[in-house]
């Protein structure tokens, strides 16, 4: 992503230059896995920024971080994501891991900007920092400066573009984000999800994006303009209430009938209806921090039909065993799926 943590810290805080922002976002669009890792880091630094003691020597902490900076940033963020899979953030041990040191550095950077800019709500970077990201299993909500309501699903994020509201209202989203947009024809509202532009035409809609399903936009009210990019050519469609648009990389946008289950996550419900295990894996990772590993090729094409509402990860895996007729062994954060013996 980048080897300069200062650049990354500025990006998280919404203070990076136009060139820095363009370079980082180009990388994130090209590698969705890096975007998920960055979202995890933002969630982690949000928690840590809220816990920075008033008497901490921030300058010394930053120097310490720079002195230990000797491994690629993506490895540190991966370690940070592994930490966010735990149910609660634990106090840092004496021997701080590289990911934690990076988080301290970013949190320290935020602290140096002043107490008015380090306010953290529900373990997410405050709107003043222009980016909010959630951790595993967390659902958050906030009002944007224009009054628009945003509800953010687990391991998801929303980032306001620089100068939001001055002429245009642009945001970047990843994961599951629901928006109730306050319509203003003089200041168009546009959401970008992995290179796909969704422009409000007076509406309520949900966006889902990941490396498996692509970008899915479901319209609950009003309509939106959906603009995808296919081999360098823009392809646009208009989605109306009750419709869903799907954009896969390199393909034209398609229109389907919206499924009410698309927004079930807002009620903390997980609804699978003949869902491929690849899609199930994405959901389990975000809601429970579990990596689903299908080791038997004969099971790769299986589909899951089940509904969960607040069940424990153990209960979810038990139901999957019964429905799939398979053995599932859990080892820490990994659940291995094999054919029944």
Structural class: alpha+beta
* Uncertain spans: 46-129
Tally of contiguous helical segments: 8
Distance between the termini: 43 Å
> C-alpha Rg, in Å?
20 Å
Describe it for me?
The chain is of the alpha+beta class and 341 residues long. The chain is 30% helix and 34% strand. The chain has helices at 5-12, 18-30, 32-50, 58-68, 73-84, 98-112, 277-288, 313-324, and strands spanning 120-121, 124-125, 131-133, 140-143, 149-152, 157-160, 169-180, 189-193, 196-210, 214-230, 233-240, 243-247, 254-257, 269-276, 291-294, 303-309, 326-331, 334-339. Strands 3, 4, 5, 6, 7, 8, 9, 10, 11, 12 and 13 form an 11-stranded mixed β-sheet that branches. Strands 15-18-17 form a 3-stranded mixed β-sheet. α3 (32-50) packs across α6 (98-112). The radius of gyration is 20 Å and the shape is globular. It starts with a helix and ends with a strand.
How is this fold's topology laid out?
Elements: H1 5-12, H2 18-30, H3 32-50, H4 58-68, H5 73-84, H6 98-112, E1 120-121, E2 124-125, E3 131-133, E4 140-143, E5 149-152, E6 157-160, E7 169-180, E8 189-193, E9 196-210, E10 214-230, E11 233-240, E12 243-247, E13 254-257, E14 269-276, H7 277-288, E15 291-294, E16 303-309, H8 313-324, E17 326-331, E18 334-339
Helix pairs in contact: 1-6, 2-3, 3-5, 3-6, 4-6, 5-6
Quick structural summary:
The protein is α+β, with helices and mostly antiparallel strands and 341 residues long. The chain has helices spanning 5-12, 18-30, 32-50, 58-68, 73-84, 98-112, 277-288, 313-324; strands at 120-121, 124-125, 131-133, 140-143, 149-152, 157-160, 169-180, 189-193, 196-210, 214-230, 233-240, 243-247, 254-257, 269-276, 291-294, 303-309, 326-331, 334-339. The strands form four sheets. Strands 3, 4, 5, 6, 7, 8, 9, 10, 11, 12 and 13 form an eleven-stranded mixed beta sheet that branches. A three-stranded mixed beta sheet has the order 15-18-17.
